[in-house]
């Protein structure tokens, strides 16, 4: 749940954006925020933020990418781009989160790039 909801009970559209970001990370990383590996110092978001620069060749859930070779690199690039959007959606301060229209625009650009890259493979 969004930090502002848990701390202050504030419900807003920005809280939904936060939830979308966390859910997206759960799907790609195949980890839940309640996983026992997470503590007060480490969260799903901090794991993604810290490991994203290191994940150039492999996303968290390899089952998402049932491809090999160049196609796998293209799919991995797409998954990393989606994780970056998820990080933007899940920032602590609600006013710093993008609205869903901007999120959809970013995801559509990622899709266009993916389809374009796949055509060249």
Secondary structure elements and pairings:
Layout: H1 3-8, H2 13-29, H3 44-51, H4 69-89, H5 100-119
Helix pairs in contact: 2-4, 4-5
Query: What's the helix-strand series?
Result: HHHHH
Helix coverage percent: 55-70%
**Beta-strand share of residues:** under 5%
Please count the helical segments. Answer: 5
Largest sheet: none
Low-confidence stretches: none
The dominant shape is: flat
Would you mind describing this structure in some detail?
This protein is mainly α and 121 residues long. It has five helices and no strands. The protein has helices at 3-8, 13-29, 44-51, 69-89, 100-119. The model has no long low-confidence stretch (mean pLDDT 84). InterPro entries: Kinase-like_dom_sf, LRR_receptor-like_kinase, Prot_kinase_dom, Ser-Thr/Tyr_kinase_cat_dom. Residues 1-110 form the Protein kinase domain.
Which descriptors would you attach to this protein?
121 residues, mainly alpha
Short structural description:
With 121 residues, the protein is mainly alpha-helical. It is built from 5 helices and no strands.
């Amino acid at each position: 749940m969004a930090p502002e909801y848990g701390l202050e009970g504030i419900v807003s559209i920005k809280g939904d954006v936060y939830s979308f970001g966390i859910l997206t990370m759960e799907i790609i990383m195949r980890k839940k925020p309640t996983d026992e590996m997470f503590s007060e110092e480490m969260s799903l978001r901090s794991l993604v933020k810290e490991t994203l620069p290191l994940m150039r060749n492999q996303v968290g859930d390899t089952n998402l990418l049932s491809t090999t070779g160049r196609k796998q690199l293209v799919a991995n690039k797409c998954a990393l781009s989606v994780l970056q959007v998820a990080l933007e959606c899940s920032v602590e301060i609600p006013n710093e989160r993008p609205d869903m229209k901007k999120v959809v625009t970013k995801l559509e650009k990622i899709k266009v790039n993916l389809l374009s890259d796949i055509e060249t493979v």
